[in-house]
Amino acid sequence: MLVVMQAQATEEQVRAVCQKIEALGYRAHSMPGAQRTAIGITGNQGEVESGTLEEMPGVQEVIRVSKPYKLVSRDTKPDNTVIKFPDSPVTIGGPGLAIVAGPCAIENRDQAFKVAECVARAGAQFFRGGAYKPRTSPYSFQGMGEEGLKIMAEVRDRFGLLVVTEAVDYESLELVDQYADVIQIGARNMQNFSLLKRAGRARKPVLLKRGISATLEEFLMAAEYIMSEGNYNVVLCERGVRTFADHTRNTLDLSVVPAVQRLSHLPIIVDPSHGTGKRNKVTPLSRAAVAVGADGLIVEVHHDPDRALSDGMQSLYPDQFDALMAQVRQIAAVLGRSIPASNRVRAEATTSAD
Ligand code: PEP
Ligand code: MN
User: Fold this and answer.
1) Mean pLDDT for the chain?
2) Is the dihedral of CA 319, 322, 323, 324 positive or negative?
3) What is the reported pLDDT for 49?
C-alpha cells in the first residue's frame, strides 16, 4: 500500500500519517519527491484497512501497489533517486555520470596509490578496490581485509576520491560501513537476504550488483530487501549474466538499463569489466553503457595488470582508461550529461587557476 500525500501537505501531516501506520503495526517509509511525498507501507500480511488513512489531513489517496517490489517502484517515487555524499559535489543518479574505477583488489599501499592517482587524473570520482574478495577458489588471494580498507581511506584523503568496496558478510559489512563511502554487495551475494537486510540498516549507500543469473524482478526484489530496512540509497549495477556465450566471461545485458529505469527510480550503473572479462571489450561496452543511459560505470584499472592478483585480464592499463574517459565524455554530452570532477580535482583546478 502507498499513501500519496497532497502536494501542499505539511511535514506535520506526513509525520502524523507515518505515526498512524506504525501504530497499526506496520512500517512507514516516507519518500519525499519533487511533486509530493509518498509513504510506502510494509510489514502488512494482507490488505491494509485504508479508510482511516484516507481521511487524515493532507492525504490525497491510498493506493495498492500491485508489483511485488514497492519501495523500489516508480509508482512509489516517480522522480529519479539522486544519491548525495556529505561534503562532496558528487552524486549518483543526477545529470552527472558517476565513474568508479580502480583495481579489482587492493594488493598493497603502493599499488592502490598508483592506480588511484591514474584514475583521479582521468576524472573518476570514486575509487574501487576489494578488501574482501569472493573468489571461486579458496586458494586464490582473498583480499587484505581491514588493512585494505585502511589503505582505501588513505586514498580518499590523498586524492579526494569516494571509496566503493565490497562487504561479503556481517563482519566485513560493519567495517566497510565505517571506512567506505559506498558498500558494494557482489553478484554472488545478491540473494544473501540476511546480508541485504544488514546493508539496509547501514548508514552508507549500497551498490547492489546483479546476480549471475538473476531476472530483473529478482534484482529489484534484492534492492527491496535493502530499502525495506530503511536504507533508501541503493544503486543497481549490471555486471553481466551467465549465458551460453563463451567469447566473453559474462553477457552484459545492457537492455536491463532502460528496463530498470522504466520500473524503478533507483540509479543504475554498468560494470563492463566483469561484464566481459576481456580488456579489449571494456571500452566499447563502456561507450555502449553510457549511450544506453546508464548513470555511471564501474571499471577495473591496474597500473600493472599482468601482475594483478585478481582479474588482470579485464583490467585496463591507465592510458586505456584515459581514452575511455575521453570517449564517454563525448557520448555523455549527446545525452545532455557530463562527468563532473571529484572534490580534490576541483580543489586543485581552483588552486592552479589562482
Ligand atoms: C568485483 O567488483 O570485483 C566483483 C567481484 O564483482 P561481481 O560481484 O560483479 O563479480
Ligand atoms: Mn574483479
Assistant:
1) 95
2) positive
3) 81
